[in-house]
Amino acid sequence: KANRKFHPDDTVVTLPNGLQIGGEKLALIAGPCSVESEAQITEVAKRVQHAGAQFLRGGAFKPRTSPYAFQGLKAQGLDLLNAAKKETGLPIVTELMSVRQIDLFLQAGVDIIQVGARNMQNFDLLRELGHLQTPILLKRGLSATIEELLMSAEYIMAGGNSNVILCERGIRTYETYTRNTLDISAVPILKKISHLPVVVDPSHAGGIAWLVEPLAMAAVAAGADGLIIEVHNNPPKALSDGAQSLTPDQFDHVAGRIREIAPFF
Ligand code: PEP
Ligand code: MN
C-alpha cells in the first residue's frame, strides 16, 4: 500500500482544518522536545508560529534512554499542548509510546500521532494505529533500513489508515561527531519508491543546534515535504534535548533561510 508502483500519485495528508503535509507547501513542524509547563509551550508555540511553523510539536510521553531521566508530563502534557493549540490554532504533533495511550490521545484530540524511532517496529502498536484515521508521523528506527521503515508504514496502512507520514531522523553509524547520521539519500529514495510524504528531523539527526540549519537546507534541497525541528525558549535549561534545540530567534533565522529555497506561506 505504501508502494508507488500501485499508487503513482503523491499522497497528501490533510488535516480537518485543511492544513496539508505532502502538498505544494513545505510543512514546518516546530516546538520543544518535551512539554515542560504551560508558559513554556505557549511561548514556544507563539514564537514558532510567528516564524512560519504551521504545526506544534511537543513530547508529553518521552522515551528516555535512562529510566531516571525526565519521562514527560504525560496526560498533563497533552492538556498543555491543547492550551497552546487554543491560543495559536496550531495543530499538535506528539509521540505515543504504547497501545494503552491510544484512547487518551483520541480524547485529547491529538492531530498527528508520532511513532518514535524506538517504536518503529512495535508491530502491535502499528497495527492498532492502523485502525485509526488520525495521521501518523512514523520515525525511522535507530538502525532501520529504508525497507524496514516502509514495512512499518505498511503495518499501519494494512489496517486501513493511509494517513502515514515518513520521517528520516538520522541513523546509527560509526560516526560519533553527530548524534546520528542524517541519511539524506533516504529522502529521494523514499519519494521514488513510495507515495507517502517525507519529513526530515534535522534536530535528532545532528544532535547539535548549529547543525540544524545546514541539515534542514539539505533536506529541503533533497525534496523533503516538511521539517520537524526542536525549539526551546531556554535550551540550556531544557529537560530533554537542549543541545540540539534552537532558540526561537535561531528558529526564525532558519525558517528565513528555508523560505529562500521553499516557500511555505
Ligand atoms: C523526539 O521527537 O523527541 C524523539 C524522541 O525522536 P526520535 O524518536 O526520533 O528519537
Ligand atoms: Mn527530542
TrEMBL record:
Which keywords does the record carry?
Transferase
Write one Gene Ontology MF term.
Answer: aldehyde-lyase activity
Look up keyword Nucleus and say if it applies: no
Question: Which residue ranges does the record assign to the DAHP synthetase I/KDSA domain?
Answer: 13-255
Write the Enzyme Commission number(s) for this entry: 2.5.1.54
Amino-acid biosynthesis is among the record's keywords = no
GO biological process terms, semicolon-separated: aromatic amino acid family biosynthetic process
Give the protein's recorded name.
Answer: 3-deoxy-7-phosphoheptulonate synthase
Species, as recorded? Caproicibacterium argilliputei
